Records
---
Amino acid sequence: MNTHATETSCIALIVAAGRGSRFAAAGNPGAPKQYRGLGGMAVLRRAALPFLTHPKVSGVRVVIHADDRALYNEAMAGLELLPPVHGGEARQDSVRLGLESLAGQKPGAVLIHDAARPFVDAAIIDRSLEALTRHPGAIAAVPLADSLKRGNSDIVTAAVEREGLWRAQTPQAFRYADILAAHRKVAAAENMGYDRGFTDDAAVLEQAGGTVGLVLGSEDNFKITTEADLARAERQLLASLGDIRTGFGVDVHAFGPAGEQSHVTLCGLQIPSPRGLVGHSDADVGLHALTDALLACIGDGDIGSHFPPSDPQWKGADSAVFLRHAASLVKARGGVIAHLDVTVLCEAPKVSPHREAMRGRIAEIAGLAIGRVSVKATTTEKLGFLGRGEGIAAQAVATVRLPADAF
């Protein structure tokens, strides 16, 4: 993506400075909703990706709360973004500050989008930008289909005509100079004591005398406001990932001489053992097998092709690096890890006392809920090199859901 905008370019401004008061009021303390996980990825990241990959968008900037920089850095790691800017007390202030920050970029157009709408698609972006050839502003919206009633407490008092009524969404597209001037005008009026209370940026442009066009949005492009919305988003995301892949991984490492190590590293944990495992990295057979299983799901080689044992930088490396990398490759392809299952084969050490801790560590590394991780163990009934206590083996299965057009 080209992050150096020109006078004819378009920049997407993602507004993520809110605190999610309605979401928190519903019993969701902690990180604001835009940083909550959705299919192993922050809602904010999913909201930004369609703009990052759109050929008509030359840059993406996120407006964040001053207290959220660490959350932002974690959520958006590895993406080519313009540096974030801090927002203000209200959404309107945040948008204006974001627009002001783009003055040096001189974009021809700007797309203003809510961080809590993770399902915008390229067609909506196309329609929004095309409308700017006819109007200084345009909003994505969907026509009302349900009957409308006005009520007082639990009594219907009147029917409301729904003809011509639309539910506004984002992105909202504007000619940059027009929307910046409109926000400045409104801010100046508010400084003189006028209380505007605009609900969106289209209203700001209209107040300044600009016309706003309508383009068709999508029912899928909903805003996450409550925990129920987040659950709906999870269901919608999974339904969109119709390509289900299963991958297998196997790894074996031998024990070294007694006394050289006091532990083995297994499924991300160091477990006491009179003999350690021999390997170029930390010889974690569980994480190695899981890494290969994930790479198999996306047809991207094996652990040795990504982390060659001949490369000295991986000498003694923590195998969490390998599994985390494989998980990131799945997510980069728009995929979701549905389940990870690993079986450890050995006579010793005993796995059962550490099983839950192993599940938790694997879940943490791969960015999953612990319920999506299974760890089992068995012996070979004293048969073969495993039965003789010469080493440890692991077999793993990964299940991944991918977009149908990912490959």
Note: Residues 1-7 have pLDDT under 50 and may be disordered.
---
Amino acid sequence: MASGEGLEDIVAGKSAISTIDGKRGVLTYRGISIHDLADHSTFEETVYLLWYGRLPKAVELRNFCEQAWAEVRLPKDVVAQLHSLPDDANPMSLLRTGVSLLGLSDPEEGGSNAPEQPAPGVNLIGQLGPEAPGFGPNHPNSKKAVRLLGQMAALVAAIQRLQKHQDLVAPRPGKSIAYNFLLMLTGKEPDEEATRIFDTCLILHADHEFNASTFTARVAAGTLSDLHSAIVAAVCALKGPLHGGANTAVMKMLMEVQDPARAQDWVKDALDKKKKIMGFGHRMYKGEDPRATHLRKMSESLCAKVGRPDLYELSKNIETAMFALKQIKPNVDFYSASVYYSLGIDPELYTPIFAMSRVSGWIAHVLEQLANNRLIRPVADYVGRQDVPYAPLAQR
């Protein structure tokens, strides 16, 4: 690969949101280790950290949760339009359209993302974080950001329910995004362990520096397009199988292999045939993806709980075979597949769930881009022909 292709190792901008040390296997949000956040935080607290640059105080977290939880619902006109869409469509296509519909129905959507003058006496979320310049309680995107965070969870759950011709399930007031998503998806009240595990999954997927979809969102925001348009652009980038979709492919692989005893032979045969085995390797990490560390443990626990310890054993055997044959370790997608499956989530919904979490990071990057905006316009290294004379039509 020529230097710079795919912008590999090219610094495309400055950010104070998340950082990756691929050699040491370190991921941080606003300087806090992903391990600490996975072990001690909640998704809502992590979102506050990403948006405001610091952990919230108790009253700030309570206010933020109340606002976000109240938005885990869809406007009636959006639900009606979702019913009119093909029920056999790709869930990511439905998500893309759904976010557009949410933008059309948002009472504050339209126009530019540029901040307005603060309105006196308004206190929507909390005070401005020291590392999040430009985003405070009076920023025009404050209400839209919180609204979209909650609506994404309702939208992803609705997509699966509608595709199965099932009635939508109302959220339970005062419950977390993770709890209500599982409730709205399955129609059953999730237990404490399932809720906590899914909440941790949302934390682990919330942000990952300048990945393809995040950078796409920043490019769109850099034009001063609206918030929903920037998120639609990010969803479009995530839809591509080289960025999103790997965890769905992992689950299909597990279903194909089935028997843990077959894992090593299956992996060797696949590698001999030059097949790409999804869920392994990462451009940024040379060793263990720190998110996989947590997902592996959650997979073992959940698979045993739902009576499918063989699914974890199969995953572990594939991991062992891949490292023995290629010295490649799993990434965030590998064990998330068996975790989601054990939670009763259809594989086709895995990438929309990724978006449901990552919208928090996308919004953080949109806000950061707008805080010190400059239109993103790279240059190309032209390698085409030069000085080509124009040939009249009759001479071609």
Note: The chain is about 55% helix and 5% strand.
---
Amino acid sequence: MKNKNSNILIVEDNQAMRKMLESMLIELGYHTYCSTVNGLKAWERIQEGNIDVVLCDYLMPEMNGLELLRLIRQTRRFYDTPFIMVTGADRRGDFMRSVQAEVDYYLIKPPNIKQLEELLHKVISQRQFPSEYDKFISNGKYYFLNLEYDKARESFQAASRARVDSALPYYYLGLIYQQLGNGKNAEINFKKSLVIEEQFISALLALAEIYQSNQDYVNLAFYLQKVTDIMPDTFDIHIGLARACIRTGDISRARKHLDDAQQLARSNADQIKEVLDGYIEAGLVEEADLLFGKKIQDDNIEKTIHFLNKLGLRSRKKKDFDKARYFYTNCLKLDPQNRVVNYNLASLLFLQKQYTDAEAYLKKTLRLHPDFTEAHELMEAVRQKLPR
């Protein structure tokens, strides 16, 4: 592969920046290139084959540069593709520390043609004339992706000896142990990688996955917080962190991350539902009610009833009986015959010792649904409370 004949893929959503990079490549003598506008389109092009180097922006719609990088590194055909990340950072900041162990090089915006030339020369030369460390890493990844874990482990251990300042061998050793079901050794190696690169996102997420599986929500929250500090605009991380905080009882912190997730969700219906569920799980009924009113209420009747009923159940759990009754009665305005809501309202009235009203709702429920066992049982309990 001669330098000037390398096929370079530019991934950049900004048209002016994309044209600038194309012009630079032409000026440097690289006439074989193609361009896409986001990571999703880039991944489609990469799968067609014949891409030698990826020159990729970080922040893009649909699929960002980091997501594309992970796809490439996890795929047998393309795992070793040279990858240059383009970032708007004005120095090697937090973001670059987080991905340095997986990205080959980074290019600062606005790009400098001399720096671009140097980086392209480096990645292409390394592909043609790899160091011992590069060979060990490449072989280790190959064996790992082909499930030859003993050989992969030997290669990554050799790589860790060849370069003691690299986090990547320990990260992959962690993945190997994780695949083999040895969670303790996996955890040890992921942590070793973080000693070298403390903001290595892949290792942070791998540890979070371990703690999620172990239901260790304190450590899960700790590592997801580190990821959020590096990547503050990631919806899934905010939701995961909020849920971990709910499990640890840190509701004020959960509220903050749910609020952040709501901002990131914008008008994405599925994500809004996740945020709404999070508010309800956290007992944040007012926030859930507000979000519901703004984003979901006009969607469809079935969905509206589902969420109003959940809000009623959460309000009842918090012993806010008036609020619970408000949600249930609003459900029944939409579907007066809904058996679950009628039963829930009757249960609430029973708790409030309003036995006559509870009996009325149960009679209505049983008239419509005579086989409703729980309603029969509650009716018996209600009638024992009514005056003879």
Note: The radius of gyration is 28 Å.
